[in-house]
Design brief:
two-stranded antiparallel sheet, mainly alpha, about 90 residues, about 5% strand, 2 strands, elongated
Length: about 90
């Protein structure tokens, strides 16, 4: 099969007319804040069991009812319950 291009045809010339260009963006690394100044170490926070299980598998941080963000690694039964989490949890069921 032979294809003929007309030199006046704008669509046949690869360097002319509208085309696709690549936008380059600087690479930005998002750093999740994994420290909450040790507050997660002083209290046991309320988090969904599903989220805890997911965090153990992926290593991603969880968000407690009070808004604390951390990667759970310790046994929560060894710590008192976070007062803010407890208050929010109780308000949810009033």
């Amino acid at each position: 099969m032979t294809t003929y291009f007309n030199s006046g045809d704008q669509q046949s010339a690869p360097d002319s007319g509208a085309g696709t260009s690549v936008l380059e963006r600087p690479e930005v690394k998002e750093e999740t804040q994994r420290s909450d100044n040790g507050d997660a170490d002083r209290y046991a926070h309320y988090v969904s069991k599903d989220r805890i299980a997911e965090s153990r598998m992926t290593g991603r941080p969880v968000v407690a009812l009070c808004g604390k963000i951390w990667v759970p690694k310790r046994d929560p039964s060894q710590y008192p319950v976070c007062p803010d989490c407890k208050r929010i949890y109780e308000e949810m069921f009033r």
